[in-house]
Amino acid sequence: MPFPTSTISRFLVLLALVWAGAVHPPAQAAQAEVRIGVLAYQGEQAAAEDWAPLAAALDRALPGRHFVLRYFGLQDLWHAVENEEVDFVITHGGQYVALESAFGASRIATLENPRFSSPGKALGSVVVVRAERQDLQQLADLAGQRLAAVAPEAFGGYLVALRELHDVGVELDDLGSVDFVGFPMQKVLQELLDGRADAATLRACLLEELAAQGSIDPTRFRVLAPQAQQGFPCQLSSRLYPDWPFVSLHHTDRALAKAVATALLAMAPLPGGVAWTVPADYQEVHALYRELQLGPYAYLRDTTLLARLKRFWWVFVGLFLILAAWVVHTVRVEYQVAARTKDLRKALAERDAAQARILAQQDEAEHLSRLSILGELSSTLAHELTQPLASIANFAHSMVRRLDSGRYTPELLAGASRDIASEAERAGGIVQRIRSFSKKRVAIRQDCVPGELVQEAVELFCSMLAPPPQVTLVDRLPRSTVVEGDPLQLQQVLLNLMKNAWDAMQALPPAQRRMDLEIGGDGGQCTIRVRDYGCGLDDAQMARLFESFFTTKPDGLGLGLSICKSIIEAHAGRLVAMRPDEGPGMCFTVTLPAHERTA
Amino acid sequence: MNAPLEPALIHVVDDDAMLRRSIVFLLDSMGWEAQAHASAEEFLAEWAPGRPGCLVLDIRMPTMSGLELQQALIQRGCDLPIIFITGHGEVSLAVQAMKSGACDFIEKPFRDQVLLDAVAQAVRRSQEQTSAALRRAEAGHILDGLSPREREVARLLARGLPNKLVARALDISEKTVHVHRQHVMDKAGVKSAAELARLMLEIDPRALD
């Protein structure tokens, strides 16, 4: 079989030489150096031994060209291609496919090893375990086991086996661990024997080569999932891939590439029997990368999440359901809390509004009561106000008359003007008094001396009435005793009580209209008693005395006493009505908490 | 013939000091002589009869009211015209005052001209009363100078009786009546029986009954 091929090759080489010579003048190409990057996976020295004859053969085949071999590791070779430091590359099928995808490299020949029946099926992997590991029979049994391999980018030594594991459902993540031991590849077997790994992957045939050298005892190892492949002389755990290609690069001169391809095919087998043949089909390598989502197909890893989703969909669905349930629960609880908070707020707001309404009504009633007292006293107030107004008018008119008649001196006019001013102030004072009495105001709290409070109320009351009633005031309380309250409100209560007393005595002759006010109490409390000698009240009237809108007066509103009572109660006191022990009339008693004035 | 009257004196009684002062000031600006009193009691203590004038009186005062003062003055035979000053809504009091002979009432607040007019009118009335009283006193003095017989003759003559009927009524001679008549006319300073009658009525409105 090699002979006919060789014959054809030589013929082709001759043809190529004739053609190349026609296209490229030898003068131009004589000194041209052609760089060949070689993957030296076992070190430069080992590689040089293998490949130096090739360079020499090419130099011979293509006179005028000088072929230089440069040895690289996988990464460095990649960079050399990227930087266009080499014109051709010799590497394994795995890297070739990657270069093809990345830089548009193309194979022009594939290595042909006489040991293998086909250069397209020359590379495979074995997965070995220690012979005694009976628990490991199939590739699928490796899940959770420790794997030893030479290097992550090794093709026959690792990736090929990885694809087989992938095919039986064992992904990289499913393995207990993967330990990369580095070159030489046989170190993985030592790992296995030392118990640091449960399984190891190797390039197919290495096991046989080592056994032939006597480096290992093959009986200590067992090949997992052995595959029978016709025409393949070694044990195998995987399918087979093409042998190493000779690769032309994108920037490589096409004519040169063609000349080299021709020379390779025409070349006699190198020492060891290897030769170059027509390029093999590397689709299987593409398929490997695609399945493992590596190299040119690494972008497929972007879908890893999707892949995991597919694999663990029930976990995701479960998690999602739990999450959804939690969200629903949370939202529901939040909603209920919000609804109840809203209800609570509403209830509180309603209560506040009701309180405000009650307060406003109290204020309004109190205000009404003041106005009603004011209304009842309005004629006397009007009288009081008329006095200064009449005086002012008199003074003013007189001054005009005097100016007309000449009966004046500057002193006289000045005096009259002063009088007018003072009368105007007096009128203003009266108006102010009415206003402050009728004004709605915010309740205040301050220490008040009961004696002063009552005295002022009596004076105010008497100033509003003519003839003023006879009021006797007895103050038994020391001036150091004070009550806390709103003086105006308390005076309003007193005015109300005095007004009631006065009204009750309208039927009496003026001389008999009198009322007694008495201030008493002890340290803790103060009592103010208002006694009249009027018509008094019957039992039915007594019972309803403090009700709102109950009145015995034809023009009364019936608010006075009910408001008095609420004012006194707001001061933490009591308002009590009773018939006096002897004599006619009524006796109203205000009791307020009192304390000694602090210095 | 009439003696000149004393100038009028206006009394102002009001418990409000400033109002009192302003009224006096107003009256003074028109040339009236005015005297202020702080209360009814004070006025009663200070007042002396004789001078014409009037009383400007606040109807509402604390101890003794205007109405009470009016009654007191009536009891004392004082005919000083009274102008009441009343507050709003005291019409009933004012009516009572007018019934008791008050000259006028003014409601506060009042226009100055109203008060001045009322005062002028009251003073005029007072002056008339005073001059009438003077004349009455004078006539009384005249009649006091007549003999009892002459007084009788004068009374009958004033009734318009002729000498003859007077003589018959008194049972004296007509000639004697004529002599008495001459004496009466001379002493009284009147020229006719009609003038004599007016004189006598001034003293006593019922003198001719």
Description:
The complex is a heterodimer of chains A (599) and B (209). Chain A is built from 18 helices and 18 strands. Chain A is an alpha/beta fold and 599 residues long. In chain A, the strands form three sheets. In chain A, strands 12, 13, 14, 15, 16, 17 and 18 form a seven-stranded mixed β-sheet that branches. Chain B is α/β, with parallel strands linked by helices. Chain B folds into two domains: 124 residues, Rossmann fold; 59 residues, Arc Repressor Mutant, subunit A (Orthogonal Bundle). Chain B contains nine helices and five strands, in the order βαβαβαβαβααααα. Chain B has a five-stranded parallel β-sheet, sandwiched between helices. In chain B, strand 1, helix 1 and strand 2 form a beta-alpha-beta unit. Chain B is elongated and about 70 Å long. The relative contact order of chain B is 0.10. The mean pLDDT of chain B is 86. Chains A and B meet through helix 13 and helix 14 of A and helix 1 of B.
By DSSP (H or I, 4+ residues per run), the number of helices of chain A equals 18
Overall outline of chain B: elongated
Reported CATH architecture of the largest domain in chain B: 3-Layer(aba) Sandwich
CATH topology heading of the largest domain in chain A: D-Maltodextrin-Binding Protein, domain 2
Most extensive chain contact?
A: A-B, 28 and 22 residues
* CATH level-four homologous superfamily name of the largest domain in chain A: Periplasmic binding protein-like II
First-residue to last-residue Cα separation of chain A: 133 Å
- Unreliable runs of chain A, pLDDT <50, ≥5 residues? 1-7, 10-30
Shape label of chain A: rod-shaped
Major sheet of chain B, described briefly? 5 strands, parallel
Number of structural units classed as domains of chain B: 2
What is the structural class of chain A? alpha/beta
Q: How big is the Rg of chain B?
A: 23 Å
- Measured as a percent range, the helix fraction of chain A is 40-55%
